[in-house]
Amino acid sequence: MTWKRSHDIADVSIGMEGKEVSLGGWIEDVRVMGKVTFATLRDHTGMAQAVAKGDAAGGVAGAGRQSAVGITGTIQGTRARGLEYEVLVSSIEVLGRAEHPLPVDPIGRQGSNIDTRLDHRALDMRNQRTAAIFRIRHRALQYARRHLDSARYTEITTPKIIGSASEGGADLFSMDYFGKSAYLAQSPQLYKEQMTLGLGRVFEIASFYRAEKSHTGRHLSEFTSVDIEGAFMDCGDVMAELESLVRGMITHVAGSCAAELGELGTGLRDPGPFERLTYKDCVRELRGMGEDVEEGGDLLDSHLRVLGGAHPGYYFITGWPTDLKPFYIMGSEADPAVSESFDLQHGHLELSSGGTRIHRREDLAGRLAAKGLDPAQFGPHLESFGWGMPPHSGWGLGLDRLVAVLAGLDNVREAVLYPRDPDRLTP
Ligand code: ATP
Ligand code: MG
Fold this sequence. Notes:
Number of strands: 16
Structural class: alpha+beta
Helix content: 25-40%
Strand order of the largest sheet: 6-10-11-16-15-14-13-12
Bound molecules: adenosine-5'-triphosphate, magnesium ion
Largest sheet: 8 strands, mixed
Order of helices and strands: EEEHEEHHHEEEEHEEHHEHHEEEHHEH
């Protein structure tokens, strides 16, 4: 017999009473009650109760929890609480047997630590709590694409194999490229800036790579970034875009993932307008709380933890010292030592960095040299600045970190299918 699926569980209802259906799914639970066997079947859309008697009862009981099965049966009413129908099984076929003992318990009754779950990620995904995270991630991405499309950005895909560092700095993975050195891109920065001179407004959602030996709950070697760059936009314009995108994502996830948020024991609502602090405000506030902060120095993780304690929600930090920011960030007209830049924070966690970019070639070449970078290495990039480069601004938003915040998770690894970090390269 060749079994063939007829319906998703979500499309079956008591209105189909007496009809035959064929459902594909995994057996989540089996209860043998004398001559009758009950099983809970789960597919990608929901759960159904199957009831089997006679020969079929043995088949259902023998299929084994978590096996992939095809069930054919008739829809009938049920007395089970909370359910409106059940499937009276006429036949069951085991399509993929689950071999016990399984390395993690997909029902989550027996908790496993995060490393064990990540080592067996595909099975962990059958845990509804884990699946909820990735459905939330899907909805967040879906909203980001819709939002940026309606704001007239064009989605682009830039190279991930590059010939030289795009941002300077040492945190690049290198590899052999037909006898030459190549690197994995740490961001789409230079390409997205160049694309503004042809496409005007662009965005990219892609993986980028950082060879930092960080062992934190927020750093990965491979992460997903949502990047935008817009011609004739300034720092304030792209901050407003980021704020409306993030608030829209929150509202969209809240509206489309009520069950998933419930599964995770968390909730979401529009946080309202984001607070805006300047770098100087932060230094003053931190000193007021007894922190030792050097004016002009970077805010350390310990500082951000204190600041995040006082500002637990979403807030911008603007006006960073130009010296602390990458070479392509513009100094302000009023005070070139203060940059046209921002970070978006959620509590102590940095979610995004952005700002106005330098668009004059001489200025950019000067900044490269001042940062100790070799302008010759940036030849093709600098050349494009002579082709009518518009003033432009943009940001990069860490999707994994944002999803972790939306889903109420402490560790960014929970929001990534197969995270890569200095200790984790497989599976
Ligand atoms: P951090 O200071 O937290 O290491 P960063 O300032 O080096 O971050 P940016 O270069 O500003 O990071 O990248 C933009 C955004 O991309 C960050 O705000 C963050 O959300 C995300 N991001 C950067 N590096 C990582 C990483 N290693 N793992 C996960 N997300 C990252
Ligand atoms: Mg940053």
